[in-house]
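Entry for the shared binder. Reason: the reviewer on the internal report wants the predicted structure included alongside the sequence.
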Amino acid sequence: MAPYAAEDSQDGGGAGTGTGRRRAARYAVPAAVIGVAAATIGLVPALADSGDPDLPKTTAQELLRKIAASDTEQLSGTVKIHTDLGLPSLGGGAAGMLGGAGGGEGGGEGPSSADPKAKLTELATGTHTLRVAADGPDRQKLSILEDAAEYSVIHNGSDVWAYDSKSNEAYHAKDTGRHDAAGDRAKQREDELPATPKELTDEILKASGDTTSFSVDGTSQVAGRDAYRLQIKPKQSGSTVGAITIAVDAKTGTPLKFTLTPASGGAAVVDAGFTSVDFGKPAASTFDFKPAKGTKVTEADELKGKELKDHELPGKGERPGDHPQRAPKGAEGVEGAEGLKVIGEGWTSIAELKLPEGAGLAGGGAAKGDVPADAQKFLDSLGDRVKGDFGTGTVYSTRLVNVLITEDGKAYAGAVTKEALVKAAEAR
């Protein structure tokens, strides 16, 4: 896709930014930032960038065109993952107090340890090593290297396999191009997880509008390749995003490194880059997978019944379209989610959502009583109590994303400051 129109101006406010793009930017920027930082992959080189190559001068507009025109479809390489949201550890007793998140019915863990929906979210914190390979739109492979183990997701034609060597379990789905059934929604979520610097870059650039400034911040070397540094900054005050820097391969236009730093300063929240990369065609055997004898295989079709039950099957005589509110969140885009409103635009957009009864979050009114005392104490210790015209509430903060939950059961979230959330809640 072309993440940014070639005729757009350097500061993002040129004629190429249409009404539709500006409307999308109202909600897409915070969604992209939250998604990249909290539920997806940050790629950081094992070694710092080296060198300051002498490259021909270029403008931000020309560099954006170069990224948009990049036709790289074949590559292989090694990356490292490091994401630092500043979240406290939820392991051990804390996880237990919160209801054993990740275990059992409703805990978010799939029936197979190889299910990508659960496994890939582990990349949201800490440092990991990856190997990636791609050969066009029909063949990709991503492997997470662990101590004496490896987890891989392989897309080869109509088949999507995931394999966890530690448990000797595999997950299999068919890539039919349909996204209307539960199993296909699971596949769609896998597709939406950015796995390379280019995908991370596309998520940000496609959401940028006239609230964003672009500039060229010199040159660097990443994975032994000469690159330009494209810097992206919010024009608006109140955002927790300080800057995004993308190292763009001078020859191919492929993003090689992606770094997101918070407005508060300090280490990057997400840092993305190859430690080695090869733009040659990977061997066809790279994408071959056949479960060995004794491997436990879970078919995506087996999960459809549970997924459909979770989202309520139509009653007798009803058609699937009779109750659109039963569609899973995200099926129709952010603006189509039930009860979701977007306040503001661009980098300071705030999502307002009415929490369901019994959500069990601190500050959630009646739902608060449903939380065990120890769990409530733990949740309260994570947040800051605030007061305003809306009453009282609790703000839960990370280095990038902040969430305000009020006593009347509303949630306000965005890559914005605590003060911006309070102000938005007071204005409602």
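Summary line for the report: The chain is about 20% helix and 30% strand.
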